[in-house]
Backbone:
């Protein structure tokens, strides 16, 4: 495949490789080039911040930091459309694993070690991880909303209980007040009646004495 089949363009993570035509599944895209180093030297470069080291085996690593290595612009994805492979002679290639549409970014999985050491601490920005984080945020917001709704419902229930209790106490108080008022109004009537009875008895006694 010629270099005309991809271009370097702006990606949401910086620069990236983009297809300039339809790339069929299984097609070679680009070679990952660089100087071959011992793993000990590569480890020292990694400690100084080199992020373009491709480990070939337990002895050798390719340093792809040189900008002439166009393959270095192919970004990582947890949902890739391409893959890397090491061929005979320590040749690293990137090939498609499905059809790649024109203007679609060419992405491959950098591997578990790179993900764990480099990407995970800063947060992977591939589409799959972005969608996962978006779903997690949505779920978190939903849980918070449900929690607030439960709290509001509980508070409303507590207020209703207090209001119901207050209405019950008020009703009892009115009953007591009504009963007290009735008793107060009845006692003077009985006193007047008793006074009248006493007056009639006294008048009758006086009449007997006069006779």
Residues:
């Amino acid at each position: 495949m010629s270099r005309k089949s991809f271009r370097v363009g702006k990606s949401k993570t910086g620069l990236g490789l983009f297809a300039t035509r339809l790339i069929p599944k299984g097609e070679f895209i680009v070679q990952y080039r660089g100087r071959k180093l011992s793993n000990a030297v590569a480890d020292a470069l990694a400690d100084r911040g080199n992020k373009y080291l491709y480990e070939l085996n337990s002895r050798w690593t390719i340093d792809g930091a040189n900008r002439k290595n166009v393959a270095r612009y192919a970004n990582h994805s947890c949902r890739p459309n391409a893959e890397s492979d090491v061929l005979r002679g320590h040749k690293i290639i990137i090939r498609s694993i499905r059809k790649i549409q024109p203007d679609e970014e060419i992405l491959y999985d950098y591997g578990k070690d790179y993900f764990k050491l480099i990407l995970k601490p800063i947060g992977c920005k591939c589409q799959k991880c972005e969608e996962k984080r978006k779903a997690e945020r949505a779920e978190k917001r939903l849980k918070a909303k449900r929690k607030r709704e439960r709290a509001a419902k509980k508070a409303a229930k507590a207020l209703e209980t207090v209001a119901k209790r207050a209405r019950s106490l008020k009703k009892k108080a009115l009953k007591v007040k009504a009963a007290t008022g009735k008793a107060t109004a009845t006692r003077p009537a009985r006193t007047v009646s008793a006074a009248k009875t006493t007056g009639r008895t006294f008048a009758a006694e006086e009449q007997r004495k006069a006779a």
